[in-house]
Amino acid sequence: MNIIDGKSYEKAIEYINSLSQFVAGTGCERAEKLLERLGNPQDKLKVIHVAGSNGKGSVCAYLAGILQENGYKTGLFTSPHLIDERERIRINGMMITKEEFAEAYARVKAVEDELGKGSLAYFDYFLGIAFIVFLKQNVDICVIETGLGGRLDATNAVKNPVLDIIATISLEHTAILGNTIEKIAEEKSGIIKNNVPVVFIKDKKSVTDIIEKNAEENNCEVYGVTQKDFQIIKNYGYCIDFSLNSMYYKNDCFRLSTNALYQMENASIALTVCANLCDRGMIKLDNKAVSMAMYDTHWAGRMELLRDNLYVDGAHNPQGIQSFVDSVNS
Questions:
Q1: With left for phi above 0 and alpha for psi between -120 and 50, is residue 71 left, alpha or beta?
Q2: Do residues 53 and 121 make contact, with C-beta atoms less than 8 angstroms apart?
Q3: Which of 41, 62, 93, 263 has the fewest beta carbons closer than 10 A?
Q4: d(Cα 251, Cα 178) in Å, to the nearest integer?
């Protein structure tokens, strides 16, 4: 591909959109082959790996916001996109350029040609492109969201993350992940790696038991965020003040520029993760910058106000829908 051609990006998107979401093998197996042929860029980066049923995108947004506000060049990989495919791959909140996308796409396409047509799926392309660009741009840290599940997900080709996160788990994609919350929890906790700290939502006992068991088997320190850790101070209708009281925070107060009650939980996960990284000497945090990031972070499609009394929310399962309804009622 001639990456100087102004139509290279459009051609890349056209080809990726022609691909299936599911092809032979697991996402993890395909991504391992792809990334190996790309020189394993993920091994040269600091990666935070995020799984979960509800809230993982918001957790990623708050986490990236804190890191950026504290001066760290942050790569963010999420899905799905709403309007532009490049929403999936951002650096310091900005989508990568069309030129960067096209250039990285050409490298991934060359690998697919080598492996054989149909050897890579839609999601695999985005993951490969993300790691190529993140490495080239020399980001300080990457926040990577799983696509579907965890254990077999393409993102699980990352073998040495600096921290694993498991957000709220509920019934979703039952035909693929299992028809019980326990089976889904097993799949999600498949991202847990040996000696890598785990931050998770400590809610349902059966789910907590599975996550803590997997963490123990992998010699991981585990940090559970519970509903008791955070408490609403005031809901103004357009923003929320809440306090966080845990092993890292002592009734510290934060303001979120949303009236979505469930974002207190997601923000608390992100705050706990950053405090853990700070405690381990991996980053340094400024309290004012952290508070500013909490307020400035917006995640499109999550209780998003379009105009007076009109909100949109991407809830995709019963628990997510109930959380949205609770926020509307508040």
A1: left
A2: no
A3: 93
A4: 38
- Identify whether the C-beta of residue 273 lies closer than 8 Å to the C-beta of residue 165: yes
Q: How far is the CA of 214 from the CAs of 162, 185, 186, 194, 196, in angstroms?
A: 17, 10, 9, 10, 12
The sign of the dihedral angle between the CA atoms of 310, 61, 216, 147 is: positive
Distances (CA, A) of 166 to 19, 25, 142: 29, 24, 16
Q: Which residue type does 240 have?
A: I
For 294, residues 6+ apart whose C-beta sits below 8 A from its C-beta are 62, 65, 66, 254, 255, 256, 267, 271
Closest C-alpha among 185, 190, 187 to residue 202:
185
Count Cβ neighbours within 10 Å for each residue of 245-269 and write b for 16 or more, e otherwise: ebebbeebebbbebbbbbbbbbbbb
Q: Convert the pLDDT of each residue in 228-286 to its tens digit.
A: 999 999 998 889 999 999 989 999 999 999 988 889 999 999 999 999 999 999 999 99
Position 303 pLDDT exceeds 80: no
The token duo for 125 is: 């392309």
Q: What φ, ψ does residue 104 adopt, rounded to 5°? A: -70, -40
SS3 category, 106: helix
Sheet strands side by side (includes 198-201): 94-95, 89-91, 74-77, 141-145, 47-51, 163-166, 198-201, 222-225
